[in-house]
Amino acid sequence: MPKSKLLKLDLLLVNPSLDYEQDIEKILSRRIEAGVGNQESPHLGFAYIISSLRQHAYVADFIDMPAEQVSLDTLLSNIAERKPSIVGLTSYSIQINTAATIAAEIKKRFPGILVCCGGPHVTVMPKETLEEFAGIDFIVCGEAELVFLQILNQLKQGKDLATIRGVVTRGKDDTSYDYIEKLDELPFPAWDAFDLELYPGLYPHRTKLELPMSTSRGCPFSCIFCVRPFGKKRRHRTVDSVINEIKRNIEEFGCESISFVDETFIFNLEWSRQLFQTMIDEGINKQINWSCSTRVDNMTPEMFRLMKEAGCYYVFFGFESGDDSILKNMKKSFLAADIQRAVNMAKEARLIVVGSFIIGLPGETEETVMKTIQFAKELDIYSTTFPIAVPFPGTTLRSQAVASEYGMKILTNNWDDYGKQYPGVMDSDDLSMDKRRELQKYAYDMIPKKKLPDNYSDM
Fold first, then answer.
1. Are residues 262 and 384 in the same domain?
2. Can you tell me the distance from the alpha carbon of 398 to that of 125, in angstroms, rounded to the nearest whole number?
3. pLDDT score of 145 more than 80
4. Would you call 192 helix, strand, or coil by DSSP?
5. Is 232 exposed, middle or buried, given 0-12, 13-18 or 19+ CB atoms closer than 10 A?
């Protein structure tokens, strides 16, 4: 059903874009193979918020401006017709200027509609965001499902939103927020609200439909470049809850692939074994394939073999460096030898391996980058990316750069430049920005994209 014909909205969620054609070009450039989707997945957070509000008879919907090819004028027309009480924009750092521009236009045309913003960027700097962007009325910090329920309840009762934990308004000093401890109590994501044909997939599943799933929230590790908006305590769902969602995705949506998007998917080894064995015992491994990302330092040959039997075809690792001193500086808690061992084990289990190395972390020199590039070449995996280090708000890396540790310095606070591939916003005495870009280009030239084997599922 066209969105313009739906009921009047309590909440309209928006994934912002001011130039969807340019955004689509960026999306397509991330593909490892032409015609095979990559990082093109429906918004899991939106799907959770919509389903959570439905339970309480609130009407929520969303507009994904890049995926749906929606212009600003079209968005404003939709708002005029559907008259939402609140418009909520999501934003990573690189999107915040776009989100703020859209917010300003909404407030200009519809001054009575509340406009808020959520996502990693505003969660870690809510007061600064409100100071910087007048068109945003308030910030939603952290996990939004229960916060939006409180917001709509307060609005219905005519109460002040500033009293809600997780809501930051101008003049409010408390920026704290709560985490959802019992994740099983959240309803399954509302994929029926999405045109799933618009989303080719997060990873190259090569099936009719891939859907993202989250089995946990939070990450206990201390990598200096990571924001960790879900906190350091890892909270996981029960195996039964995860299995039931997979079955629902298969039966109701014809899902044939799952991308597990947890920050740390395989952490509790016993829980993971139970999940994978249940997938095998119930024949789910014959109905879907699946992908995930995990760390290199808690894996065993037995675990990789069990993952493969359970339907896993593809695993992503955040390697970050091939130099032990740089790994130590970023508090990665493993060494290059651990990377090599994990890759070998995954290959032996006949899994497709992909990974990422970051250029320009603390202590980085041209020599350490070249060592990493050579190491990456020797790993010989399906796909390797080389993002340039970005000092995102809320990270230890940003604090170090502000303090000029390791000779690092932040070159700009233009959030539009805070992408991981280009142009780069931080350099150091030992590695200029020009040199970082030069080394990044060299890395991609040295390690070209590969083609996924046609028989990958039978490898």
1. yes
2. 13
3. yes
4. helix
5. exposed
